[in-house]
Input
Amino acid sequence: MLRTIPKNVIYYIIFLLSFLLRSLQITIPLNVDEVSWLHRSTLFFKFLFQGNLAETFLRHHPGVTNMWLYGSGMLLNCKFNQLFPELLDMKQSEDILSCLNTIASQNIPISLYVIPRLLQAVVTSACMVIIYVLAKRLLGQAVALAGIILLILEPFFLAYQRFLTTDALQANFSAIGMLLFLLYLRRKIDPPGIRYAARFYLISSGVFMGLAVAAKIPTLFILPGVFIWIVLIELGLWRPHFHPRGWRVQMIDMCLWLMTIFLVFYLILPAMWVAPLETLSQLRAGLSEENDYITHRFFLGEIRDTKKVIFHLFYPLALIYRLSPVVHIGLLVCILILLIPKLRRNLQNSSELLALILVSLSVMFFLSRTNQKYDRYLLLIYPQLILLAGSGWISIFVLAKRRFWMAILMVGLQILVLAPHYPYYITYFNPLFGGGKTAQNLIHIGQGEGLEQIASFLNQSPDANSFVVASYMPNVLDSYFQGMVLNLAKIAYSDPNLLIQTNYVVSYISQRQRESTINPELLSFFNLQQPLYKATLHNVDYARVYSGLIPLPENLKYIQTPLSLSFGEQVTLLGYDLITSQVKPGEELVIASYWKFWQTLPTTARIGMTLYDINGKIKQTSQSSLINNYISLDQISLGTIIRDVHKLKTDYDLPLGRYQIALEWWIPEQDQKLEVTDSQGKLPGNKAVIGNIEVVK
Output
């Protein structure tokens, strides 16, 4: 059936399908690393225009291939802004350099991601066609077609094909480079004239590998696998497809290949033109510093040092959760056939498949020995693994009596896996192992997806542009949100007083996974509250919005129980919200109180909350500082209204019934409780009874 379809039609279908999947809903979601790479790409072209070539080395990844592509997209953004001033969310600039300066000095709005993402969609879709063409020559049309269909529809792979990070171009270019190199090695020994012509494959392989290395240095983890290829070929173990050429010829070819890789790296990184030794030194220092850095990451339910032996399980576990069940089936069948000699003899391309396995194992081995553990690093071997899975499925087709329907089953199952995650493909985790709901308890997840939903929720208010929001991954939220965004991580670790400015606070799942490394007072403060909104994707709460410390005027109108109780002349209680309307013995009573500060209180002042029974006897009491002592009272400006949250842990033997809730302010060093007056100036004492609570069974 495949032979009746013109090959050009297959190429067009592969390209169009790939392009559509990469461009539909192109602004959703945004990955946190994209913000950095688009900013670096803008700086890259800015330095090029200024002639400051030494500064074009911006990162030890080094991401040069990406910066050329994404920076070109930013140039097009500047051109479009000149031609159509209202089209993009940009200020007008006199020239291209001024435009790049403007973009580089501010957070990048989501509208400026569209053109760079479209450019990447074109390039990566073309790569899918090239991978298919090369795989067809190496493994046969059936395996190539099965593999490319699975690859195009693989959720996690597709997610990063859409993102403006180093991973997409690294994976695609390295896969093309590997296939070209295998095709070169598989050629029989040719006469000298033909041999030089055949080296086109070798040089082309070096070019694509050079582009992949320039995108991301860990591409070099492929090399040990390639060296093993050469050894096995020269030992004659891969006959008849791979013929020994002699060690001298192989070494010459390897040197030529490696020189091509380095030459491409040199040519596309302008910093190498003017300061090669300094650039290489910076590259080495950056890589060494990153690998030596002690990183603690969430793994198997807790924060662990990535240098621990248990982290050798990270990448195998990540593969289990990130590969689709369809790919798992194909991979298992392929590996099983290769392990059983009787079945392996029936394979026409067993040596080529073993070559792909060796490269994958080489990458896995060296990745496991680095301190940086990220599931996306596995994308480097996704094309190889999925071509292996394609071979496994073709073996299933051969055994089945109805091959056409088995092919439909394979494609249908892969679509069923992919479709529910549109356009949030990064939220995919293997459903056979519990999906995201289970994965969130095992591995680090969350790269910014869901924050656009938070922005949409906040932007619904007509006054959204005046809101101040503290958020984890603030640059992602800022690309969608109309108001001001503060860095919650910075607040948590170094500048807690910034929290006094916030109307809303956004927590994120990767932050909550690392709760033991976050300021416990801040974490406890928000854990007590119910979120105003949750961005839930596939049963996982990625992002949550909480009321901030500074309530908006519109929020004050909806206080559950408005009050006007003055504590001395320093502070007034404007009211409270009962977060837990009833409690069981042993549970926590939680209220949110609204305080207006008229005078500066001593930093040691504390708030007491007491439960009285119907006879006026104290049954429970608790004391806490404002906002769990997270911010200092002397940092609060006079006239400021603060929303605080208080809790009281009830005893397990607390009798059932109705209780009164009372609040007080106590200054320890003066052993003084502030006198309470109501709006009529009456003096009920130094405790304010504000409401009632039911303790139920």
